[in-house]
Amino acid sequence: MKNNIFTIVLISLIMIFSLLFLEILLPIFDNRGETIWRKDSHTKNLNMINSNIFFSKGTFDTELGWDHAVPSISDEVKYIAESYGDSFTESGFSNDKTWQEQFYKLSNLGIINLGVGGYGLDQSILKFEQYSREKKFNNSRNVILGLYGQVFKRSVSYYSYYYFFNEFFKYAFKPIFVRDNSEFRLLEIPCQNSECLKHELENLNSATYANLNKYDYWYKKEIRKPILKFPRIISYAKAIPSIIHRKKQTNFLEPTYFEDEESIELAKYLIFRFCEKAYIQDSNPIMLLMYDRFGLEGIIEGKREDEWLIRFLNENKITFIDTSPFLISYIKNKGNIDELFLLDGHYTFKGDSLIALSIYNDIHKFKL
Fold first, then answer.
1. N or C, which end of the chain has less CB nearby within 10 Å?
2. For residue range 298-356, what is the model confidence (pLDDT) as tens digits?
3. Pick from 319, 298, 301, 302: nearest CA to 310
4. CA distance 98 to 68
5. Is 356 exposed, middle or buried (0-12, 13-18, 19+ CB in 10 A)?
6. Cβ(148)–Cβ(88) under 8 Å?
7. pLDDT at position 297, please?
8. pLDDT tens-digit profile of 167-197?
């Protein structure tokens, strides 16, 4: 009997000390898995002065969430296209030389740069519709839509803070297309001023929270994440499914850019919408397929996540330019992907030059 009690006590002590050892050890790994822990809520340190600044400065847009000023164009340049998209379309982050400017040097033909950092596919298309409606550039003969992984992911975001977790986006909502009864409809941004936003974010029963809980993929994903707290063992145990999922993503075993079938259906709807609006104004829509570092590494590994997209574009006879052959050829010949990307993930001058070269190589796809 005494031996049994001693064994039980010994085992208990071993377990307790093992758990304590784990609790002391686990903080070493906290920052390695920062994407699996729930981050600070948007309500922490809400500053309505900063909110007033966000709404009052020139970048706020009542339809798009935010936008740049309309670019000036030269009467001496023959412009053949407008280009819409996010920061990969905006480009020029290494030395202000955008791929549009580099294309001009190759061809002596202009492409109007209408890219905006942080845009989702939906915002890019809505901006095209807005500019076409207002005939800001007399509806160019060609309209380019810049596509790469992040623009698809942002299309299922409504409150941009839960995608970027950046102070600038703490007050930024974007329009989002949501599906009700098998049909997509536009859900506009909830507020046009700071007072409205304050009311919506402080009231947990507001219409904005109802929409976040129903439609915003990234908000819903965030609030399901475990909070990193004592005891860490329990936090890590809750995080195991997310850790496994993230590991599979980094090994190209699970999708990174298209979270589910509905996000793919939304992308198809938005591309169709862009093309239909372009055809109505007699413009030629062109999809420009660009890739971040992870996307290129996947293609090199034979794990191309956008195969469905290329198949979809081919099946529907939608014109597209795939920039990956030039990018990958450069990597294989030079052997250094680092030369194509800045530390923040954008293209270097060389990366932008290869986008320009890809377009120039397919210039026959444009209406000239």
1. N
2. 999 999 999 999 999 999 999 999 999 999 999 999 879 999 999 999 999 999 999 99
3. 319
4. 16
5. buried
6. yes
7. 95
8. 788 889 999 999 988 899 999 999 999 899 9
